[in-house]
Amino acid sequence: MKEPRMHISDTRNLGKRKVDTKYVIVNLLKYLRPWLPLFIALFITNIAAVVLSLIGPRISGDAIDLIKTDGSTDMSAVLYSCALLAGVYLLSGVLSYLSTVGMAYVSRKVACAMREHTFNRLISLPVSYFDSRQAGDIISVLSYDIDTVGESLANDVVLVLNSVVQIVGSFVMMLVISPLLVLVFVVTIPISVLITRYLAKRVQPLFRRRSAKLGELNGFVEEMIAGQKTTKAYGCEQVIIDKFENKNTDAVDAYAEAEYLSTMTGPINNFMNNLALTLISVLGALMYMYSFGGITRVGQVASFVLYSRKFSGPINEIANVFGEFQSAIAAAERVFRVLEEQPEAPDPEGAIVPSDVRGDVEIDHLAFSYVKGREIIHDFSLSAKKGDLIAIVGRTGAGKTTIINLLMRFYDPDSGEIRIDDTPINNFTRAGLRSCFTMVLQDTWLFAGTVYENIAYGKDGATREEVERVCKAAKIHSFITRLPQGYDTYLSDNAVNISKGQKQLLTIARAMLLDSPMLILDEATSNVDTRTEHIIQQAMTKLMEGRTCFVIAHRLSTIRGADKILVMDGGDIVEQGTHAQLLERRGMYYNLYKSQFESY
Fold it and tell me: Residue 6: is its pLDDT beyond 50?
């Protein structure tokens, strides 16, 4: 029983809410702070490159003025101007290259730090966070969103810094040539600014929605790939394809809507820039013809036209990357929202690490709800002594796994108390409490690594002899020795190269390696056949000796020897006792047992 699944970004209202640009910039500057000296050096290098490029139009204008129509042109002076122009642009290009490469280095470092911090924060988050979100959506933040931010820093930031300096420098140079001719931009620039601001307000929410829709699509794909065998077994390929098409269409529509508005900015600004260039060319020619407004040389008109291109060109470039900026800001916001998620509550001051734990467990009047107002565990009480085997059975959704979640403090109860050896578990550190339990879950988890590494996962420094000992006890030693490299056989991601039952056996061996005073088995034999289950039961009997054991089971045949069987229904214990006692009562357990064996 879990709370309803949500996504990192609720897509229902994303198109209505603005991206918090200030919030994003403030948080992004925190990651740039360690690289601030290098960033400043790169900024200075970039300014030097732009300044040198701004000298070019002036040299070009002077070279044009050196050309005379009467045949008295000083070609050596013209060639010198050309050589000087080539040198200036070459040096400008080198400095610009160094600035770009340096910024790419900074962006990689920033993206690396963001990804590391995000991953570390995800590891520290409570189980409830992952219960309420799709894995694909979380992965989308960790990969796509951070990559988007890094690419924007590497490319767009350099372009914008370059453009801003170039715009200011060009404007100053145009003022020097002819302040009157600059008035052309009084008409065109305000129109461009107004259009850009209007589109910015419209586009920002759309890029957030675009990122969220992509995360939702990734989450769906991740789930479908994980369950592709079930999809094929039930012949639901077309159903899944239809659902994917709907989600893919939503994502494409979100992309198209955001890109449609963002790409309008470039063409509109380009039109305004061309209009400005046309007006400058016509007015400049008229001013030269009539020696008006300080324009007395053709070279001045040529220089002014070149500076106007350097002035309007960057404005157009900024407009063209406008959409990428909005996408990066929306992606960065999603990353920073994850970083703001609260980790598991810290251990209380004075929390102790349990030692010499016997394994006596008391649950006193426990109540719990995943969602406020929807209580699923009501006034639950239980007493288990060291070495007791407590079996928990009931219909699906009765609250069995929730009890395990509360024992491990994956969640905290709304009221009531759990005590181990008469000490409330809230007085223990979480790590210390969880080290008191060994868990074997229904959902097996093995990582990409050798068989030995997977079994030794929970115990630092486990020797090969210890691993082989527990594998023999779990009756899988002979299976492992038949593998190509034995215990050194490499298991692919989630061990897809061995059967599901074999994976379950490996996780059981992993649990047997730990010497915890308490054991939790959540449908631990659900993926093995009846004969293997019998073998595992023999191994489990040895494993459970002297330990307090909590077993969640649907196969009631596996818990006949339990010291106490709790029958749960709707969050309450409706029956408890031994197997024989419960059969005598002919209540819910009797009906479950009878229906199960009649089904075979």
Answer: no
